[in-house]
Amino acid sequence: MSDQPYFDVESKSRSLESATPQEIMAWALEFFGTSGKLCMLTSFQLGGMALLDILGKLEKDVPQDKRLPVLFIDTGFHFPETLAFRDEVVARYGLNLRNLTPIVDRELFKAIYGDDQLYYRNPQECCRVNKVAPREMALKGFNAEISALRRDSSPERANIQILSRRTDGSFQIHPLANWTRAQAMQYLKDNDVPIHPLHAKGYKTIGCFPTCCTIPVGEHAPERAGRWTGTGKTECGLHLVGQKQDTNDFAI
Ligand code: SF4
User: Is 4 inside any structural domain?
Assistant: First the structure.
């Protein structure tokens, strides 16, 4: 991308390891935000809520329509509690929300795949159409994305960097990379931040409602044990850091 700022990404990322999430968010807003090409992706879980609270404080004097675009992937398969919580959080923080929808509507989806229960037969394909592709399409309008990934949440995420660059040249920013789940929880408690109601019902992470995609596992289970349990699938494919997701791959 021609309008990408140039700097040494690895060295900048290393220097941010000792910064707080607030400092990283402030840096990102200053460095990328003025270009209008920075966004944040969230599904309103623990880390995302911490970042949204930090963002709200940093942008308290910014009109809602000028605030950082906050992307939410509305797969069409969310729990009703997630959609209600999204709306509550948008109102509370005055978010500049961008609701991303699947690349095909439900009727066409059913016509292509026979029904809308592809998640049982081929969750990878279901995630590709309903989650990964809408996000990749949206990212074409940005050159940097903030998300709340943490290294301690799974082995697949253990090596994420605070700042990294994808092969398409865009930047990924993970202000909570070196935070633990306990630190995120403590931030929410200390700052009176609302928490997704399903966390209190044993859901450690919350994705789509089919039981093959998300189940409650209790507080002592690995954080992502309740996602696609028993299928071998551990990620929806959104956060394959550093790997280019070519939109042409999403043609169906
Ligand atoms: S999480 Fe499940 S329902 Fe949601 S897009 Fe992926 S496979 Fe489909």
Answer: no
| Host domain of residue 236 | 9-250
User: What CATH number is associated with residue 215?
Assistant: 3.40.50.620
- The pocket around ligand 1, CB under 6 angstroms, is made up of 75, 77, 119, 123, 126-127, 130-131, 207-208, 210, 213, 236
Q: What is the pLDDT of residues 38-80, one digit of tens each?
A: 999 999 999 999 999 999 999 999 999 999 999 999 999 999 9
What's the CA gap between 26 and 4, in Å, rounded? 19
Which atom of ligand 1 is least distant from the CA of 124? Answer: 7
pTM for the predicted model, two decimal places: 0.91
- Which two three-digit tokens encode residue 157? 């995420």
C-alpha separations of 149 from 64, 107, 112, 178, 197 in Å: 25, 33, 33, 9, 20
Give the number of domains in the chain.
1
Q: Is the residue at 90 inside a domain?
A: yes
